[in-house]
Amino acid sequence: MADTGPPKGEIKFMTPFKIADDPPTPKPIPDLIYPERTLAERAAARFSLAGKSAIVTGGAQGLGLVCARALLEHGVEKLAIFDVDETMGAKALEHFESTCKGEKPTVLFRKVDVANEASVNDAVTDVSASFNGIAILLCFAGITESKLAVEYNIDSWRHIFDVNVHGSFLVARAVARDVIARNLPSASIVFTASMSGYIVNQPQPHSAYAVSKASVHHLARSMAGEWVGHGIRVNSISPGIMNTRLSGGPSQQALRRLWLEKSPLGIGDPEDLTGAVVLLCSEAGRFITGTDVKIDGGYTIF
């Protein structure tokens, strides 16, 4: 499918968003948003994603799978997993089937190369038609490579950016175009950056990865500024050292010892990302846009 171009209708670019009315003077005791509900019901509503539809790229494994599962746990009813690995995609669907335990959300898998514009546009168009719009996008598709800068060839360098930066851009653009064309009231996009966008990794060299993740930080801010008039919030999260296949195993034992010396809270579990993700996608985060949330166990403090 060729590039469809911008959506039809008015594009509310940058600052021409609707200027909100001046709120009333606060009362000594603030009003309750849901006065008829119990404390527990109001707490649940704050972080509820009930009835929403979502796409998660890189959602067939690792951090993406855990955060996709969290969306279902908080009420997402329609979920599409985008990944290049069909085998892992099938396993992810089996996992969701077993963990939903009788509940019946719609969960789809699509083989998508996020760096391929046609693949992205076709998949987003197909899923949005099936779901009647998309309210949430999590971008977890990404790759890394540890290599000295003097040893990098330009094709390897470009491949990192094609997946981590250009892939995030292509999927977010496709979803935003769809939200604008459907005139949906709101949407939330969450990119996965990294603490590597703030620091220089050591002892492993990660120049391409680190620069790509710093780019993701600013991509989120730039898109947040452009799309605020359409009710599209764009944020990013920056994980630290997480306990995944990339950091586990005997081959990484020496590195893990060094990481533990630098990370006050140690090595994170993928589940540690889910709180921030749900916050950014729910009503609890409705006043947050253009922000990066560090989830690094204090690694970047020092």
Short description:
The chain is an alpha/beta fold and 302 residues long. It has helices at residues 39-46, 62-73, 86-100, 117-131, 154-182, 207-227, 253-262, 274-281, and strands at residues 53-57, 78-83, 106-111, 136-139, 187-192, 232-239, 292-295. The protein has a seven-stranded parallel sheet with strand order 3-2-1-4-5-6-7, sandwiched between helices.
Output the strand order for the largest sheet. 3-2-1-4-5-6-7
Per CATH, the architecture is 3-Layer(aba) Sandwich
List the uncertain runs. none
Q: What's the β-strand tally?
A: 7
The CATH topology, please?
Rossmann fold
Overall shape? globular
Percent strand equals 5-15%
Instruction: Indicate the structural class.
Output: alpha/beta
Write the H/E string, N to C.
Answer: HEHEHEHEHEHEHHE
Walkthrough of the structure:
By secondary structure, the chain is an alpha/beta fold. The protein has a single domain, classed as Rossmann fold (3-Layer(aba) Sandwich), CATH 3.40.50. 39% of the residues lie in helices and 13% in strands. It has eight helices and seven strands. It has helices at residues 39-46, 62-73, 86-100, 117-131, 154-182, 207-227, 253-262, 274-281; strands spanning 53-57, 78-83, 106-111, 136-139, 187-192, 232-239, 292-295. It has a seven-stranded parallel beta sheet, sandwiched between helices. Strand 2, helix 3 (86-100) and strand 3 form a beta-alpha-beta unit. Helix 4 (117-131) runs parallel beside helix 5 and helix 5 (154-182) runs parallel beside helix 6 (207-227). The longest helix is centred in the middle third of the chain and has 29 residues, at 154-182. It is globular, with a radius of gyration of 20 Å. It starts with 38 loop residues before the first helix and ends in a 7-residue tail after the last strand. The relative contact order is 0.13. The mean pLDDT is 93.
